[in-house]
Structure formats: C-alpha cells, structure tokens
Amino acid sequence: MSRSTPLIAGIFGSLAVSVFAMVLVPQAQIGGLQAQVTRDDEGKIIDVYPTDRVKYGAKVYASEGCIVCHSQQVRDTQNGEDQPRGWGERRTVARDYIYDATTFLGNSRLGPDLANVGAKTWRNEAENDPRRPAKRDAAWHYLHLYKPTAIITESNMPPYPYLFEKRRISGARSKDALPADQVNVEDGFEIVPKAEARELVAYMLSLDRSHPLKEVKSEAPSPAAAAPAAK
Predict the structure, then answer these.
(1) Strand runs (DSSP E) across 71-182, as ranges?
(2) What residues contact residue 60 under an 8 Å CB cut-off, 6+ apart?
(3) Consecutive 10-residue runs of the chain (231 residues): their mean pLDDT?
(4) Is residue 123 a contact partner of residue 229, using CB atoms and an 8 Å limit?
(5) How far apart are the C-alpha atoms of 111 and 48, rounded to whole Å?
(6) Cβ contacts of residue 104 below 8 Å, gap of 6+?
(7) What span, in angstroms and rounded, lies between the C-alpha atoms of 157 and 42?
(8) Which of 20, 33, 136, 217 is deepest in the core (most CB within 10 A)?
(9) Is the whole-model pTM more than 0.85?
(10) Where in 4-72 does DSSP place strands (E)?
C-alpha cells in the first residue's frame, strides 16, 4: 500500500463528511421550504411575505455596510434578550427569509436588530422616554440617517449626509425635507433625501417578520416584564 493512500482517503473522507453535514443535511431539512399560505374569512389567499422586498434598497443596505453593525435575526428567549428588548415578538426562522435575494443575518450588534424595524411595534421603550417617537415613519428614518444624534444623543451610528442633497427652496418646501431646526441649513435651502436614501428607507420599512408562522409561536413577555430597550 502506498504511503499516500491513507492521506488521500482521509482527504476524501473529510470532504464527504463536510458535504453531508453542510450541504445534504440542510437541503433535506429546508430545501423544500415553501411560503406559508394564509387565507382570510372568505378563503382568499393572503401572502404574509412581501414579494417585493424593495430590491434596490436592499442593495443600498448592503453597500453602506449596515450588516456590519446590525443583524436581522431575532433569537429565542433561551438564547438572548431580543424579544424582551422589543426586537420581535418571536424568533426568526428559515421561512422568514424565503423571498430574500440576499439574507442579511449580520455578524455583530453594535446597533439593534432590524429584522422587524418596519413593524408597527419595535423596541420596548418607556412611555416617558423622550426618544420614543410617535411613529417610526420615513421622516424619522431620514433624520436618523442624516444625523443619528438628532434622534439619540449618545448614538454611535455614523451619519450618512451623502445620501442627501442640499438645494434651494423653489416654492413650497419638499414634503421629505428634513426639519430645518434639526439640521444645519441656511435660510432658503432644504436638505432632501436622494434616491438611495429613499430606497433604503423603503427597504427598512418593509422589514416586518411579526406575522405568525406554524413552526414558531410568539414568546414575547408581557410589557410589565419587558427589559429596557437596547440603545
């Protein structure tokens, strides 16, 4: 027997085990995963997964490196405080990403998880918290992108002023113009979002995985037991 035979056998054996564990087993588990169909009282199909995930906005999200500081995966209550923080009513599962062209799971959490940032309720904040917005709509996100500290004084999020442009006001102010008292802009001018900012915000507002799925139930605690929101 050649001395190289055990080495070659070991290499192919390792490769076979790796393919089995990392390709074949996951394929058997979720390879045939389908969208969950929901019907209303009249039997009409309601697709709880947005088929249009604002694809261009997702590309801006990727190009600006949002994945470096933000995740999009809510852990269960046994493995973290994501749900008490208000980042989601339930943990995220494979079916949540079924329509995503690119899955932004994230690799760190210097900022909050964004899996449900577009949901009606996101983050548990005290009623008297001055940073608690009445609504996290597009206007809120625009200001947060342009000047994060205008929203949260101690925020360590970098500003993205290059996603906006300053222009002279001609007639009425733009409906998307940032509030003049929050940004440094001289009289007669306004700061408005560029196309990239609009698409990015549209994508973030589409992030809502709060709908129930058959394989996972809501594990969110009652508001009285909720932990303070992460900054």
Answers:
(1) 164-168
(2) 196, 199, 200, 203
(3) 79 88 78 74 71 82 94 91 90 88 88 92 78 87 94 91 94 91 90 96 92 73 46 44
(4) yes
(5) 27
(6) 58, 61, 62, 66, 67, 70, 71, 72
(7) 46
(8) 136
(9) no
(10) 37-39, 45-47
Strands (E), the chain: 37-39, 45-47, 164-168, 189-193
Residue 123 falls in which region: left (phi positive, over 0), alpha (psi -120 to 50) or beta: left
Give the amino acid at 23.
Answer: V
DSSP reduced 3-state for 202 = helix
Q: What distance lies between CA 54 and its chain's CA centroid? A: 13
Spell 80-111 as b/e; 16+ CB within 10 A means b.
eebbbbbbbbbbbbebbbeeeeeebebeeeeb
Please, what is the end-to-end C-alpha distance for the chain in angstroms? 64
In terms of Cα–Cα distance, which of 132, 97, 106, 115 is closest to 210?
Answer: 115
The Cβ of residue 31 has, within 10 Å, a number of other Cβ atoms equal to 10
Q: Write out the two tokens for 195.
A: 């196309």
Give the per-residue SS3 of 83-94.
CCCCCCCCCCCH
Residue 172 one-letter amino acid: A
Residue 209 in contact with residue 92, Cβ under 8 Å?
yes
Picking from 221, 196, 213, the residue whose alpha carbon sits closest to that of residue 145 is 196
